[in-house]
Amino acid sequence: MVVKHPKKLRLSVYLDPEIMAALADYAARRDHSRSLVAEAAIASFLSPDAAERQEAATTNRLDQIDRRVARIERDVSISVETLALFVRFWLITNPPLPEPAQAAAKAQAGKRYDAFVAALGRRLAQGPALRQEISEDVSAHDGREAR
């Protein structure tokens, strides 16, 4: 027994040249006829769940953007912590040197840099955030001045 499908009905539409070119390009890339692509697009447009699918796609995109922003925020936080630790480390360990001592200090630069990187790693892994430490330092300083 052969199942016979009803014959499709013909529809003539007028499209802007840009839309027709986009339709032809899309159909060619997918190796489908323009008619099949247009039929699928119309069916999707008329589908009662089209709005829900569009909302789900938008939600997915927003979630991706949110994850990217969170990663950027994390990276900026690491950069700020890196700079803060570097400035603090540099100020503590680098008193002004007389001219003859500068050559010896340059010889120690590699060791000091390694120590900086190790300290940065420890701080990022477990240390307090710069804003917390600054507020603690300011509170402690204000307490000493009040005495």
Brief summary:
This protein has 147 residues and is an all-alpha fold.
Overall description:
By secondary structure, this protein is mostly helical. The protein contains six helices and no strands. The chain starts with 16 loop residues before the first helix and ends with a helix. 0% of the residues are buried.
What is the number of helical segments per DSSP (H or I, 4+ residues)? Answer: 6
Shape from CA axes?
elongated
Rounded mean pLDDT is: 82
**Beta-strand residue fraction:** under 5%
State the main characteristics:
6 helices, mainly alpha, about 150 residues, elongated
Give the arrangement of secondary structure elements.
Elements: H1 17-30, H2 34-46, H3 50-93, H4 99-107, H5 109-126, H6 130-146
Helix pairs in contact: 1-2, 3-5
